[in-house]
Amino acid sequence: MDKTVLLIEDEPNIIEAISFILMRDGWRVATHSNGVDAVGAVATRRPDLVILDVMLPGRSGYDILRDLRAAEETAELPVLMLTARGQTRDREMAEQLGASRFMAKPFSNAEMLEAVNDLVRS
Amino acid sequence: MARAGLTGSRIRERRSVLGLRQAELARQAGISASYLNLIEHNRRRIGGKILRDIAGVLGVDPAQLSEGAGVALTATLREAAADRPDAGAEAEAAEEFAGRFPGWARLLAEQHGQIGRLEQSVEALTDRLAHDPHLAASLHEVLSTVTAIRSAATILVETRELEPEWRARFHRNIHEDSARLADGAQRLVDELDAGQAQSAAPVAPQDEVDAFLALSDGHVAAIEAGRDPETALEGASFGSSAARDMARRMLTRMAQDVAALPMDRLAAALRDQAGPVPDPSALAAGFGVPTGLVMRRLVSLPPDLRETLLPAPPGLVIADASGTLLFRREVTGFPVPRYGAACPLWPLFSAFSRPGVPIRQGLRMAGRGEGRFTAFAIAEADQPLRAGEEPVWRSHMLIWPDAEVADTAPRVGVSCRICPREFCRSRREPSIMARGA
Questions:
Q1: Taking every annotated instance into account, which residue ranges of this chain make up the domain Response regulatory (chain A) (predicted)?
Q2: A122 falls within a domain
Q3: Chain A closest CA to B309's CA: distance in Å?
Q4: Under 8 Å between Cβ of B134 and B191
């Protein structure tokens, strides 16, 4: 398959586990763990998919998503949003800003794999 | 609120409404004009036949004069009718109803107020995560840790031929995370316990005043219309006399503000205002009034003017020289701590170091939404000063949501316990958000 996913998340142990399962599934995994320069990281790495946590140090995932959608090169990039509060309001906000998919923590590894594979297929 | 002592004022009010001269009313009621004058100034008690005669001339029920249907009561009844249009209450007959059945009218008005307060608490309870930042932070911590554990555990169980190094690493991660989870769960339980203790505890007077203000969304129509604070308090119920006193003081201040800067002048100036967020210090300079006064007026605008004249409803925090928050009106994304102290990085506090100098400061709120705001702050003496008098300092901070604020703007928090800001020299206590602690 050989697709690249950029994981923007700040919990080291979540990064490790998700990276592991994605690599075993055949993905190239890049990680980034702060919000401030996340948009720049997407521009440099040019991934096929971004997994984006809402609560990041320095900058909210929503702001990052807004910037990604505003830029021409990343306007259509599949983005999977992760949040620890699966409230309707968060979900609505993510949809409004153009998230391709929304996933509330805690999720299972199988759900994660299914979501990312769906996103690059569609 | 029945105030038998004010019967005279009601007679005078009713007489002026009818356009009847004092001498004429006295003649028709069969008393001397000077005696009626004393009655109208509440300097003579009145009851029995004279009250009935006066009420007869004025065309109202005696009870309406002695117990006071009151403007505020009638207004509340109209409001209640407007809230439930389907019921078909005859809003135009509110005054007559209040006059003929004062007890029923008061009951209805009190229940209307109670319904408003209950609706608010229900809203707060339903969305407790949004109203309680401590709880939200603890829950976030627990959910993140659970996610890490679940993911690592699944890998250990489901991956065939997992290399020993990986196996050891995930075991260690689960071990670490389980300790974090235990701590986080304990904190969550503490937060929930604290929440119960809070709702069971008697409400602080300040909370009652806040709730009273929140009922009308910060805008007190009676004060705006030039009525006295006592009239505005009619129909409001407080659990303690301290709360009623505080509310009366606040309304008195509000009435002074209204007199110094009437709504139409403020509205006209706001219409001419350029720029994305109104600058209260510029408005204050134009009016020749204190900046804090303009800030207080901006948060007491009636909802329709707020909608048309302001870019967004602003927040306002007022502190005294001890840093205690005396007034809080929140704006979405910029919570103000209910209990305990706020973030010392707020311009609200730095304003105290240069009293009288207005500060404009772009801010980013650390954590959660990372929202952006433009804050205006100023520390001013509470009253005009005289030589030999120590000033009473108050700092005001007006907060506008402002997406235009630059990335370089300072990042501030709500209060240390829930602040994710790292390497903060102003930190007083560790954050419960483990990563930033």
A1: 4-120
A2: no
A3: 26
A4: yes
